[in-house]
Amino acid sequence: MRYIKDLKSAEGTEITLKGWVANKRTGKGLVFIILRDGSGICQCVVTENSIDQDQFNQADKLTLESSVEITGMVVKDDRQEGGYEIQVSHIHVYQVAEEYPIAKKAHGIEFLMDNRHLWLRSRRQWAIMKIRNSIIFAIHEFFQQEGFVQMDAPIFTGNACEGTTNLFETEFYDMPAYLSQSGQLYGEAMAMAMGKIYTFGPTFRAEKSKTRRHLSEFWMIEPEMAFYDLDQNMDLIESFLKFVVGKVLTQCEVELAVIERDTTILKNIVQTFPRIPYADAVKMIKGELDVNGKNSIITLEEDLAKVSARIDEINAEIVDRETKIATPGLKKGEVNFHVTKVASLREELKDCEENQKNIPQWLQSARNFKDGEDFGGSDETVLTRLFDTPIMVYDWPHEVKAFYLKRSNDSRYAKGVDVLAPEGYGEIVGGGERETDKDLLISKIKEHDLPMEAFEWYLDLRRYGSVPHAGFGLGLERLVAWVCKLPHVRESIPFPRMYGRLLP
User: Fold this and answer.
1) Same domain for 252 and 132
2) N or C: which end of the chain has fewer CB within 10 A?
3) Which of 347, 363, 379 is the last residue before a domain boundary?
4) What is the DSSP letter of 147?
5) Rounded Cα gap, residues 383 and 281, in angstroms
6) Mean pLDDT of the chain
């Protein structure tokens, strides 16, 4: 069996492909089948003179997403995607599909989510999942070549790892249990055995959030390293992200083109990531500290004015083109051209109107931000709009970070780091150096009103051979969302689980 991705090596030979009909056009004595097989797409040309009449009739009756086996000659054709097409000599039809519910016309997001099992077949979703796959492979490649051991943390846990109430509770036989929020505490134990480890598995958050950044089930990569401090941790994070994004840029050119991702910002990954203390980041958000001549407040006000002006331009152009569409006697080609442009303008208009709504909220949040608070989505957006690379914000107020983070020399702060992606995507990595003082950990566990008996095993890590150590967690879906520049994290995972959605 051969695949579309292998056509280059099969030029001039007859091969057999198996796949699904992604599109079909007909002409006099001709049927053009756009075939997809998971590895790519190609055009298959069926002519009445090259195939028997019964098979030609079958080809003519094929519907969208019908499953077929096609045999034919591989011919070079630079006009086609991939540079090749199939001149068909034989067709076997597995199934003529019923009327496909997802056609070329635009559909609302709720309809597409209800049909996620079919939406995955679309060209754009195919490309996103291919990029996700490359990212996953690159993650394993990076850690394996750096001498890390992959290990697995449990999904059932007996307690929260960070004192939050946003837990999915269940019953483990006759004991209360929770779906894991993080494998980090277990990762620390494993690092004390192996030196450097990473876990890669599903995690769960029961937050009733419907934002573009939140999922209830997502995949987390969590390395833990013995004898690492905060600076070494940040060095590792930067090397890791540069490696992974670099792999996507070199391996996924076709897929990035399919989703029309402007890779300019992604290519900036080679630059050194700015490392910003929390105190300076606050000043940047509030407009009290400029970044390369850019002031957050002034930039937002200018962006709002530009967006408002662009909305007026788009609305005027839509009216103009709709007037032309209604003109009697206009050629079909011109009508279709204007219809396509109007559809494109309306999509741009939605984005502009969303920004027109959001920017005043970002401005208000920036102006009212209080030192000592954690960053919300608006604050991260304001800050990252000042940079063209990921940034690292470190030394956070200890009150807003997890109990297990080590205090900085200034006891008001903890040795934590958040990595924020540019283009408004916010936090994609959170981590830091772990507290090694057993007594301080005990006091923090009590302060967070956590059950001491559930953490006795964790305290053993400080009783027996405690060492400086650090680690971080990266949400796979948020990284995919940024790399692909997705409007919502729900498109970054095959079957998203989020507040209000458990099907399909």
Assistant:
1) yes
2) N
3) 363
4) T
5) 7
6) 93
pTM of the model: 0.91
User: Do residue 303 and residue 418 come from a single domain?
Assistant: no
Kindly state the percentage of the chain with pLDDT values over 70: 98
pLDDT at residue 187, rounded to an integer: 96
128 and 15 belong to one structural domain: no
Based on the structure, what is the number of domains in the chain?
Answer: 3
Strands ordered across the beta sheet of 413-421: 149-150, 196-204, 217-226, 469-475, 426-433, 413-421, 391-397, 275-277
First to last CA, the chain: 31
Residue-wise burial string across 271-300, b where 16 or more C-beta atoms lie within 10 A, e elsewhere: eebbbbbbbbbbbbbbbebebeeebbbebb
Question: What letter does residue 271 receive in the DSSP assignment?
Answer: S
> What whole-number distance in Å separates Cα of residue 482 and Cα of residue 132?
11
Identify the CATH number of the domain in which residue 53 sits.
2.40.50.140
DSSP 301-358: HHHHHHHHHHHHHHHHHHHHHHHHHTSTT--HHHHHHHHHHHHHHHHHHHHHHHHHHH
Enter the tokens of residue 223.
Answer: 């390395």
Q: Determine how β-strand 156-157 pairs with β-strand 149-150.
A: unpaired
Same domain, 133 and 89: no
Report the share of the chain in percent with pLDDT over 90: 77
Helix or strand or coil: residue 156?
strand
Residues 24/9, Cβ–Cβ less than 8 Å: no
Q: How many Cβ atoms sit within 10 Å of the Cβ of residue 489?
A: 22
Distance CA 495, CA 504 (A): 7
Range of the domain at 207: 117-274+387-492
Give the CATH number for residue 433: 3.30.930.10
- Residues 253, 166 within the same domain: yes
Determine the Cα–Cα distance for residues 468 and 192; give it in Å rounded to an integer.
10
| Cα four-point dihedral sign 401, 406, 412, 418 | negative
Q: In terms of Cα–Cα distance, which of 433, 430, 392 is closest to 409?
A: 433
Phi and psi (nearest 5°) for 155? -90, -40
In a domain, 279, yes or no: no
- Rounded CA separation 52/91 (Å): 10
The residue whose two tokens read 């916010």 is: 426
| CA dist., res. 131 & res. 492, Å (int) | 9
